[in-house]
Amino acid sequence: MNSIPSLPSRKYLLYAVALIAIVVDQYTKLLVRDNMLVGETIIVHPVLRNIFDLTYTTNTGVAFGMFKEIGPVVSVIAILVIAIIIYYNNQLSERDIWLRVALGMQMGGAIGNNLIDRLFLGSVVDFLHIHYWPIFNIADSCITVGVAIMAILMIREIRQEKLIEQFGSND
After folding, report:
1. Among 25, 53, 96, 126, which one carries the catalytic annotation?
2. What pLDDT does 164 receive?
3. Backbone angles phi, psi at 169, to 5 degrees
4. Distances (CA, A) of 11 to 98, 107, 131, 155
5. Annotated active-site residue in 25, 53, 96, 140
6. 82-125, pLDDT tens digit by residue?
7. What is the pTM of this model?
8. 110, 78 in Cβ contact below 8 A?
9. First to last CA, the chain
């Protein structure tokens, strides 16, 4: 009897996505810390001069530097959120691939910003500067994209439920 080795459970997808997010986030922050001075701006391309640049800043607050006084509390909240994500990941169906990707991005972003940076550096390194928007980093982007994916999934699920209510299921 030929047995085909089973693929690893899809629940590990969350951890792979989180690890990639953490590595990219921390590597880009290392490059910024090693090659720029705090407050320094690098023009990426002359055409983008008034749109996007790299500006090295640090942040002790939460999203986009707000609420600096509660920065330490954010690490505790991040640990709780990570624990909830891990628990929830184990409850998901094998088919919930995009939800695992979204949660992995959020978990990786939380670990990158709220645990590694805050615990080891005392503040978060920000450097991506889209003009007219607060300076941010890869971890912020991962959290934002993860939330956007979840919102899309929720909207899609609500639409499917409404269609089923309206036309009945195809069972």
Report:
1. 126
2. 83
3. -85, 165
4. 11, 14, 38, 23
5. 140
6. 999 999 999 988 889 999 999 999 999 999 987 899 889 888 99
7. 0.86
8. yes
9. 35
